[in-house]
Design brief:
The chain is mainly beta. A four-stranded antiparallel beta sheet has the order 1-2-3-4, with no helix packed on it. Strands 5-6-7-8 form a four-stranded antiparallel beta sheet. Strand 7 and strand 8 form a beta hairpin. The longest helix is centred in the last third of the chain and has 4 residues. The chain starts with 5 loop residues before the first strand and ends in a 5-residue tail after the last helix.
Length: 102
Amino acid sequence: MPEWSMVSIIEPSPHQAGSAFAAIDRHKLDDLKPLIYRTHDGGKTWTRIVSGIPDGAYVRSVREDPRKKGLLYAALNSGFMCPSTTGILATAAAESAGLADP
């Protein structure tokens, strides 16, 4: 994880003990890259997972679906995404939800 990063949230997996997801925010440091990490060993090691999320869409929160293991929901500064190993499953504009940065 890059130095001076702000951890927005660490979300434990509802499906697997020792697994969790972290949303990292660096936009106040002018770094708009999306940063989501996952662990499967209780936090000893973390892997960056951002397939399908474009640069400039920094991450505010991440959650795993409570019913479908591996399905993640990412709240971004510019909308919502469901990143997966095959790319983006669904997106919705934040403007329509009133969640975009002014």
